[in-house]
Design goal:
The protein is mostly helical and 381 residues long. It is 67% helix and 3% strand. The protein contains 15 helices and four strands. The protein has helices spanning 10-17, 20-47, 54-74, 78-102, 122-138, 149-166, 170-186, 191-211, 213-223, 231-243, 267-274, 276-296, 304-328, 346-362, 375-380, and strands at residues 113-115, 118-120, 365-366, 369-370. A hairpin with a 2-residue loop joins strand 3 (365-366) and strand 4 (369-370).
């Protein structure tokens, strides 16, 4: 895409400032997600008495919307990203409250709102918004503004965690807490306080283990597989064994016929069986490429808000991928967390698209110099 250097339009500036390598990695991951949805979801759909391509068709809609969000949000200015987070945060807190009041209960949890044929999971959307808002608050310390930035960020974290724990959703709680802790470290929180915060998170997990049977069961099954039901994990490991180096071939896998969450939490196991270890490594390289490329763009970033917001979003993206892959490989306790842009799920797909669109905005540069974004477009906001 070429525009004359004198062209000051929004699209022209975007084409000069956006990181095309980062965008290419994201689009590559989306393309992989389309392929894997076609191969992993039909067996699950047929088992549930639905049309073979029921999940695939829905996922294509979500992916199309996600692509529009990624590109559309990447056109925004930094100010628009910040203002959008400020507006969206209280709305999402309200939606989180509604899930506890009127949301349907599924497997002992209330995490969703039913909107016609679409099931909305507000906790997915709160993650990128919380990260951006936390970065904005913490950046005040770098500008010598007389506000208690770190206590305010901690209070905001406690509010979000309170909603998540009451759903309950301990996996999302640990993920968002880890990112919050990383942002606090970037903001210069002393090591003694970082250590105390880390110990508090470990203590909270131990309390959940003692008093929440669901959490205790998953941890016990991980530490001692013979102590409970490890069917999905066993099937996932069997899939990797069957696949070997090059896999059994697209659509030829057998484990997905018996794996309940083959199209969501355990789609990486389907990759291992049908496409083999090499394909798994390629996908992991795409995830690593997105995180490393994004972080490399922040090395010389002078704006503390942009640096902490983009780093936090990349941390969330990378940790979510690590958790999902770790569960598939039996390296972590079972947890219902999607593989970014690959697992089936509308809320997760759209929330990740929002996050990656923000990353593209926050890492934009022109000729190696930090650019604030589409100024003319931002003024219209």
């Amino acid at each position: 895409m070429y525009f004359d250097r004198s062209d000051k339009s929004v699209l022209a500036r975007w084409s000069r400032e956006v990181d095309w390598w980062l965008l290419a990695c994201i689009l590559g991951l989306v393309a992989v997600g389309i392929l894997l949805t076609l191969t992993a979801s039909p067996a699950v759909a047929e088992r549930l008495g639905l049309g073979s391509f029921h999940f695939a068709k829905r996922q294509f809609v979500f992916l199309s919307m996600g692509l529009c969000l990624i590109v559309g949000i990447s056109l925004f200015s930094t100010a628009m990203i910040r203002r959008g987070a400020i507006i969206a945060f209280p709305i999402l807190l309200l939606l989180l409250g509604l899930t506890l009041a009127i949301g349907p209960e599924y497997k002992g949890a209330q995490r969703w709102l039913q909107l016609g044929s679409f099931t909305l999971q507000p906790s997915e959307f709160i993650k990128p918004i919380f990260i951006v808002l936390t970065a904005w608050i913490l950046s005040a310390d770098f500008k010598a503004q007389n506000i208690p930035a770190k206590p305010l960020a901690t209070l905001m974290w406690l509010i979000v965690v309170m909603f998540l724990v009451n759903q309950p959703d301990y996996g999302q709680t640990m993920l968002i807490s880890a990112v919050w802790l990383g942002q606090m470290a970037l903001a210069g929180l002393p090591m003694i306080w970082l250590g105390m915060a880390g110990l508090s998170l470990v203590a909270g997990l131990y309390v959940a283990y003692l008093f929440v049977p669901h959490v205790a069961s998953r941890i016990n099954n991980f530490l001692d597989p013979a102590s409970g039901d490890t069917y999905q994990t066993d099937q996932a490991l069997k899939a990797f064994e069957n696949g070997g180096l090059i896999g059994t071939g697209p659509g030829e896998g057998s484990v997905k016929l018996h794996l309940p969450d083959a199209h969501t939490d355990y789609i990486f196991a389907v990759v291992g069986e049908e496409f083999g270890t090499i394909a798994c490594l390629v996908i992991l390289a795409l995830f690593a490429g997105i995180v490393v490329r994004g972080l490399s763009r922040l090395i010389e970033e002078e704006n503390p808000f942009r640096m902490m917001a983009a780093a936090g979003l990349l941390m969330q993206f990378g940790l979510q991928a690590v958790i999902n892959v770790g569960v598939n490989l039996a390296l972590l306790p079972s947890k219902g967390m999607t593989l970014p842009f690959i697992s089936y799920g509308g809320s997760s797909m759209l929330a990740l698209a929002i996050g990656m669109g923000m990353v593209l905005t926050l890492t934009r540069r022109e000729s190696g110099v930090r650019a604030e974004g589409a100024v003319q477009f931002g003024r219209q906001f």
